[in-house]
Amino acid sequence: MFNVEFNPKGSSLIDEQLSVSGLNNSFDFIDFISGGAKKKKENAKRNEKEARRVQRRIRDITNEHNDKLDAADKVNYRRASNFAHNSNLRNWERSKEIQDFQYLSQLQQYIKSNAIGNKQLGLNAQAMARAVSEEQAILKEAFIEQQFQHEASMSDLKETYAQGMFDRREQQVKLAGIRSQKQFGMASLMNELDQQETQNALEKESAMVDSLVSEGTAQLGQAGKSTAKGVQANMAALQRGLMALDIEMSGRRLSANLQMAELQADASLAEMSAGINLERIDRSISNAEAEAKSNIKALRANMKSKIREAKRNVKQISLERKFSDVNTKAGMMIFPERLDYDPKPRKPPERIFIDRAKVIAGFVPNAEPVNISAEIFDTFTQAVSTVTTAVTGINAIGDAGGLGNMFKNLGGNTTPNTTPTTQQQ
To answer: Which of 62, 166, 261, 332 is the one with CA 20 to 30 A from 80?
Structure first.
């Protein structure tokens, strides 16, 4: 900062100190008796002049340096401003490239997302169609199963009808046989009874003929009491024979009536049994019809339940597809919008430079004035005080008994003096 050159032939620092202290080869009596006041005054003047010169030099160097700094600041500002502007332009161009690349990447992602989303929507539709087809197949299988069960139930009912018809015919045949057996039995008994009555009548006629022959024979014999008795006996025998025939015929009638009653009872019991069998057959047919109706009703209710279940499943499948479609569409990207480029960078306003203030020379106070007469008087006073101090010291050495004793007293070997100051005086 300071252009100070070393000169080995010039005045040295030692010469300056000697000149300030007054210990140079020249001897000045006034300076001696004034205690160097004269030299101090000359040195103060010289130092004041040198200080003013140095301050002026510092001022010139500082102002020159500030001018260079002002010029350098302007140059550095323009360079930094141009560099920052060029960097901003390069960054702006690079940001445009990055923005174009990002937009292209977003477009590719959008295309890929839509392709995947559309495929997923197609898979959702296929899954729904397949699920609905499965429900339809299940419903068809249930319908076929119901048809088989319905046919089986109707077949069982037809079998029951056929078996009932055969059983009814069998019972009707049995009933007809019972009735025919009853009629034939009754006819046989009546025929037998008629034959017995005819035989009885013939026997009566034969007995009456025999009685008439006997009576005629008896009347042809001798007359008298024996003939009357013979007639009476013949009439009595005829009467007994007729009564026996009537009694026998009554027994036969009673036996025939009993047989007819037994035949009638057996026939009635057989007809009742056949009627019970017919009722049982009708009851079994009615039960089969009721069971068939119940089975058909259960099959229809089961089919209706499966149809409702299929409808619920189809609704659930449709709802699941809607949820899946909503999730798929929610995951699909929307068409990306292209943003405008950032504004092109511009240079900032020019900076206003203010030059550094000019430096003025520093303040140097004037040299302090020196009164030589006062300094000579002070020197004389100091000399008198020095002589008085020396005399007092010599007297003190004498009072102490020599220089050695005084040193001992100063070392602290003697007892302190407790005599009051007034007594010493």
So the answer is: 62
Asked if residue 405 belongs to a domain, the reply is no
Beta-carbon-side half-sphere exposure of residue 48 (alpha carbons within 13 Å): 12
- 237: its two tokens: 């025998």
Residues 78-119 have pLDDT tens digits of 999 999 999 999 999 999 999 999 999 999 999 998 999 899
> Could you give the CA distance from residue 32 to residue 376 in angstroms, rounded to a whole number?
9
**Residues 6 or more apart whose Cβ sits within 8 Å of residue 239:** none
Question: What is the residue type of 99?
Answer: Q
> What is residue 75's predicted lDDT score, i.e. its pLDDT?
92
Residues 124 and 324 sit within 8 Å (Cβ to Cβ): yes
Count CB-CB contacts under 10 A for residue 89: 13
**DSSP conformation letters of 95-144:** HHHHHHHHHHHHHHHHHHHHHHHHHHHHHHHHHHHHHHHHHHHHHHHHHH
> In the structure encoding, which two tokens stand for residue 42, read together?
């000359």
The rounded mean pLDDT for the chain is 75
Identify the domain containing residue 268 by its residue range.
109-330
The structure tokens 């206003």 sit at 352
Number of domains the chain is built from: 1
Residue 49 belongs to a domain: no
In angstroms, the CA 75 to CA 73 distance is 6
Q: Is residue 251 part of a domain?
A: yes
Cα(69)–Cα(37) distance, rounded to whole angstroms?
47
The predicted structure's pLDDT at residue 413: 47
Sorted by sequence, the CB contacts under 8 Å of residue 267 that are 6+ apart come out as: 178, 179, 181, 182, 185
Q: Is residue 14 a contact partner of residue 31, using CB atoms and an 8 Å limit?
A: no
The continuous run of DSSP H or E covering 192 comes out as helix 37-220
How far is Cα 165 from Cα 171, in angstroms, rounded to an integer? Answer: 10
Which backbone phi and psi does 134 adopt, to 5 degrees? -65, -40
Residue 307 lies in a domain: yes
